[in-house]
Amino acid sequence: MPARITFTIETPTGRRTTSLTYERRGAGEPLLLLHGIGHHWQAWEPVLDVLAAERDVIAVDLPGFGASDGLPEGSPYDLSTVVPVLGAFCEALGVERPHVAGNSLGGLLALELGREKLVRSVTALSPAGFWTEAERRYAFGTLRAMRGAALSLPVPVIERLSRTPAGRTALTSTIYARPARRSPEAVVSETLALRGATGFHQTLAAGRAVLFREDFSSSVPVTVAWGTRDRLLLRRQGVRAKQVLPGARLVRLPGCGHVPMNDDPALVARVLLDGSR
């Protein structure tokens, strides 16, 4: 069962408390898992048990997503705010310099945690921040359309669609290469998470100016992995990531989409374990 922890953070209006929800399993070196925009910690469910056999795995709902609180009023959903919140979250758990892996927005946050040297290693799956302006506009437009569809569909319709492979494809084919493999329950849950994501628009607004440009890969081990069937952040962005981070290991995920954990759990788990050694 997921847990919840309350801790203090710095905000533009002083110190405030916030609460994040997380799932923790396994034993070994700590591995923090960060999901993408509009998702929740359950995005990692397909790989959690495999990872937990070798790691102390902590999958967290980011601020304003899943069951976690939104940021206090007046706090922007940008890197300079969210990264310290994640640092404070780890401190509250008594976890010092975990390995970190992230997908999409979570991949960008993982890289920023690495740049700040707050983690032992970074594995980024299709991380945001290596786009051209046209690619960013395309991705953000697609995300807004997904959110709009999730908000417009009545819950009984979402539940009915999720019961068939064609319906699951209609709901999730933008992020999964093999959407029919996702369970009906998971599709309903993540569609509701997308519609309920209080931090969605503020996160997109903060992301308009984001480009990851700084190389830190000589001081922290970095793995960047990209699905060959990523329809949201196209795989050529992985080549750019390697140019920015020449010391990083670039891994191809054949047949995987933007959220690869469900498309090929065994391969993704292996990449995460190799990247967190």
Features:
about 280 residues; alpha/beta; eight-stranded mixed β-sheet; 11 helices
Detailed description of the structure:
- The mean pLDDT is 96.
- By secondary structure, this protein is an alpha/beta fold.
- Helix content is 41%, strand content 19%.
- α9 (236-244) links the parallel β7 (222-227) and β8 (249-253).
- The longest helix has 20 residues, at 133-152.
- The chain has eleven helices and eight strands.
- It comes from Streptomyces bikiniensis.
- Keywords: Hydrolase.
- One of its GO terms (molecular function) is hydrolase activity.
- This is Alpha/beta fold hydrolase.
Distance between the termini: 27 Å
Determine the number of helices (DSSP H or I, runs of at least 4 residues).
11
Give the overall pLDDT as a whole number. Answer: 96
Q: Which segments are poorly predicted (pLDDT under 50) over 5 or more consecutive residues?
A: none
Structural category is alpha/beta
Shape: globular
Tell how many strands the DSSP assignment holds. Answer: 8
Radius of gyration: 17 Å
Largest sheet: 8 strands, mixed
| Side-by-side strand order of the widest sheet | 1-2-4-3-5-6-7-8
Percentage of residues assigned to helices: 40-55%
What is the ordering of alpha helices and beta strands? EEEHEHEHEHHHHHEHEHH
Beta-strand residue fraction: 15-25%
Domain AB hydrolase-1: 30-261
Organism: Streptomyces bikiniensis
Protein name: Alpha/beta fold hydrolase
InterPro entries: AB_hydrolase_1, AB_hydrolase_fold
